Polyphosphate kinase (Pelomonas nitida), 688 residues
Amino acid sequence: MTDPQSPPPLKLLNREQAILEFNRRVLAQAQREDVPLLERLRYVCIVSSNLDEFFEVRFADMLDAARDPLSPVTGQDVDRVGRAAHTLIDEQYHVFNEQLMPLLRKERIVILNHADRDEPQRAWVAKFFEREVKPLLVPVGLDPAHPFPQVANKSLHFVARLSGKDAFGRDNRIAIVKVPRVLPRVIKLPSNLSDGRQAFVLLTSVIRAHLEDLFPGRKVEAFSQFRVTRDSDLEVDEEEIANLRHALRSGLTTRHFGRAVRLEVVNTCPAELSEFLLEQFGLPPAALYRVNGPVNLVRLNELIDQTDAPALRFKAFEPAWPTGRLPRHKSIFDRVRKGDVLLHHPFESFEPVVQMLREAVADPDVLAIKQTIYRTGAKSELMDLLIEAARRGKEVMAVVELKARFDEEANINWAERLEAVGAQVVYGIVGYKTHAKLLLVTRRESGKLRRYAHLSTGNYNPKTARLYTDLGLLTADADLTSDADSVFRQLASLGKFKAPRRMLLAPFNMHSRMLELLALVEGAARQGYAGARVVIKINALTDAELIHGLLRAAQAGAKVDLVVRGACMLPPGLPGVSENIVVRSVVGRFLEHSRICYFRWADGDDGEALFLSSADWMSRNMFRRIEVAWPVVDARLRQRVIDEALMPYLYDTLDAWQLGPDGRSVRIAGNGQVSAQQALMRLYSDAG
């Protein structure tokens, strides 16, 4: 008889290919006719940005793993993922060139190459080159005294092959031109030169047209743009360092020159030049990506931002203020004392969270403020408020995660500014990222201390709160606020772990508790309970133990619905293995970011549990990060989460995809077009 606790015999899906499959779903947004045209172009830019990070982090890690003889990752795995990346990038440029560019031209929005420009336009471009561009370019001819230059991660360069000999009679044919980041990549032509259109030229086209001007007396026989992507993980030995902030500050200067993992050139680049570049960067031929267009499509965001065409963008959406539950211009603390307030972003405004902190800073009865800082941005009113609170003499504790990838520099700067005004700044636990989202305010009321908390699935960033779906809870619940205080104490004191009253805390008890809840559902299903149910909404599912827990519950007869925005390694729909599991991914106007875990093993409130969390179901989140999950115990709020943030996504037939057992996604088509995000936008617009 099969042991019900033994993992099912199946091969999980490849994580890196699952990430590429997610980006294929994002690229599909650029092909939707119901999406405004400039937003379709923005999705192309998003795919490029996502792929940059994929190569900088995931693919770089995969290459490292393939070199380890003890790793299960093989060279064949690397080749398979590399081929999938090539296919996706080729498809991306096809969408850009063959679908979006013709549609933009119909809207009289054009990108003019040198051949497309008339004489007045060429004259304007020539003056722009002489005035704005040429003074910042330093061409480097290669010879023994001028070796191949340092090329920073994702920086734009040109490589050129020159005719003849240099001024000293030497036969140095190859030159490199670095394009400074300070130069705009997209330039809008004056309206008097645009013939009633909105006309743009790319910086690469400007330089290409005048490349020979940089080499007087010589011909440019061949050339190409190129860009190299490098391993961008910060390498810091956290066991050897005395000060993490100083070590990371030093590491930021070398990050841009990590090991090369990808080389991009234009598809017209001669083989001689591409082979030369591959040799310089120590890359194999498979790492070469020939693209039909600009080597960095991310920069086309500049075109979107400069285009005056409101009809080609999403209609503006203003998040609603939760007036019925949180009256404007009244004390946040007075309202939260009466009961918990749930906020659903971006449909509801993030402003109440900012207002709570403003009120705390101004209130003389507030004695202490504690907050975690992960991705708050280079400019942040929340951080300015913490600084002001410290200036006013309040006890301020900030847990700053210095290793929030690509936000390290901004967080280091905030940490230094906070320390300068006397705030207590800690950097969490060495070896563990602090990813939990917590804000705790301690206030003196009637001679006693009362705590107020904000718990969130998303970051303390008002800008991304308008773009990401997240859930936040304002609460004065004694158990939850005590638990939040315990988390801050744990992070500061490094004492022994003491289980919180209600919260789950990774890396201590979150993983084990999720497995216990899955086992409860599994047991109920084995005993014949027809309502056994699991619904999980997360960004990624890659932890093998949790995957096997889901499989056991499904094999016992429980219904399992997963809404996984990004990488999912669980293959659903396999007969006898995962046929009771449906995996959906929703890609819409907003980035799905909330993490919700629902379990039902019996009828009634005592037979179900719903947790909100900062954690995805990945091993790194469960064991190498500080994460929190908290139960929604109020039955009304729990039902609201189910009705708004879970069930609509299970019936979405416009933005949803269904994952197959082979790891490929198929867009869901149903009767009528139903979008969970659009329905929520209408709901909150009507409420507002």
Notes: The longest strand covers residues 220-230.
